[in-house]
Specification:
globular; alpha/beta; 5-stranded mixed sheet; binds zinc ion; single chain
Amino acid sequence: MSRFAVGIDLGGTKVEACLVDEARAILARKRRPSEPDKGRERVVANILALIDEAAGGARFEAVGIGTPGTYSAGDDIMYGAPHTPLYERPGLVSLLRSRLAVPLIVENDANCLALAEFFAQCHGRYSTVMAVILGTGMGSGLILGNRLHRGPNGNAGEIGHTSIAIDGRLCECGRRGCGEAYLSGPSLGRRYTELAGEALSADKIFERYERGDAPARRVFEESFRIMGELFANCVNALDLEAIVLGGGVSNIPLWYEHVPPIMNKALFGIPGRRIPILKAVLGDSAGVLGAAYLALREMHLMEF
Ligand SMILES: [Zn+2]
């Protein structure tokens, strides 16, 4: 008889759920608005209704949920979710847990994505991988020696807030020179505005790069160096075998060609290493799927 688990991806404006079986196949996937502006009870009601909808009567044994920021069980708060104030007030997760009859496992959404991408394209080939999400922000999840490395506080892998220039550009977090302050979609846009006086999305800057636009070429050439040096720092610190790039900005194909040579040149130690930068393959299903894997692990059906 099949066994089932549910994965939830809680975002600032929407929540998604999927039902998986023990073979990790997605049997159903649903989404609806999360409505954090209507309060905690409403968010929890939305999540519970969505779980029922995704399960469709199947008897699931555990639920995994990916959330923004880092959930601290001690004070029942998600830290680092500043765009959704409700999530940073205590009580949301404990309320959800109290309404569920099965175990609920909570994990950072970048870690969920890392897990899903790791099993989709690295497992068995690479054991030590960093998955980076580059979009409106920059986050990452770490799989070290085939294990999800969350750190004692669940806060490991904040590559977006490691600095590559101590007197560099001011980041939203208050520090200078953070990777996110250069490489996130909005940061690429800001750099283009500085150079050309025009506000453009990362996709549009890429279109102009293709047409030979000088400011666009400069934005990307600077970004290749920054990403290459930043990723080399991570490889040097963690002995990574591969890097997976996901999120909206990862759809720009330039990174995969231009960043590895810069990164590989900056590696320390064993010469001649070529660390691949792999494009994420699961698109927007990585979050829910990784969350479901947490539930499958709780059921002793997966190991990581
Ligand atoms: Zn920062």
